[in-house]
Amino acid sequence: MNRNVKFRGDGSFKILQLTDMHIGGDSNNAKDLKTIALTERLIAGEKPDLIVFTGDLISSLGVQDPAAALRRAIAPAVRSGIPWAHIFGNHDSEENVTREELMEVSREQSGCLSEAGPEDINGTGNYILTIESGKSSSAAAVLYFLDSGAMAPESIGGYEWIHTDQVNWYNEQSLRLQNEHGSLPALAFFHIPLPEYDDVWQHGQVSGNKYEEVCCPKLNSGLFAAMAERGDVAGTFAGHDHDNDYCGTLHGIRLCFGRVTGYNTYGSLERGARIIRLQEGERHFDTWISLG
């Protein structure tokens, strides 16, 4: 399958960000069925060009067949015929399954554009997608996907961080793309928010809801600084915090939370998704929440 998605004839490109579905092991669970139904409505109503799952598609703890749970989570995207991509969160491979095994399951499904990524750096699911011009086959924008891991070592505590080798990989890919295509506008997707998500709430221009502390890593590995220096990434999109859905601008980069999609998990926000709309040739993007 061609992994390069394409701007529409009118120059637009719409992404549907689904996050924290937390599908479990019981195929008849009422809350999970409600999540799947909402996902189907969101896909049908928004008609995106790309569906992106930003982690915690499943909650694998105590689940005997996590692969089956993952197939249920991604089934609406597979049935839609729309290309889709994903990254993992801290709950996807918590028990009885590895990220590598889940990635194999994903890549067996039609429409999947995800990749395991380089084996010599941390994480499973570090990869890029390019968006082709609506007028030609040349690259017009790029999407970065990074595996933000799960839990930090006990000596540090809290959540894992995007490691230095992954930051180096981003820098290498960004430079390569610039050399090959010139300056391309870019977006980045990961599950666990960067420490700068807390900074932007304190110091940036912000809109949206913040009803819980930002559950970011205790260590800052410098991904945001790398993106600011490279100058290609216009916005980043995370999940993880079910009661946060705000967007804020910090040093020229918009840091956005998705809207929690799954019912079988905590959170007071109405379930939905974030919509992201790019326009070819522009670094700016529009984004809003859709409730299906």
Automatic annotation (TrEMBL):
* Gene Ontology MF annotations: hydrolase activity, acting on ester bonds
Instruction: Give the protein's recorded name.
Output: Phosphohydrolase
Task: Name the SUPFAM superfamilies on file.
Answer: Metallo-dependent phosphatases
Sorted alphabetically, which PANTHER family does this protein's record hold? METALLOPHOSPHOESTERASE DOMAIN-CONTAINING PROTEIN, PHOSPHATASE DCR2-RELATED-RELATED
This protein's source sits in the domain of life called: Bacteria
Stored CDD domains: MPP_Dcr2
Query: Calcineurin-like phosphoesterase domain spans which residues?
Result: 13-243
Q: Which GO terms describe its cellular component?
A: cytoplasm
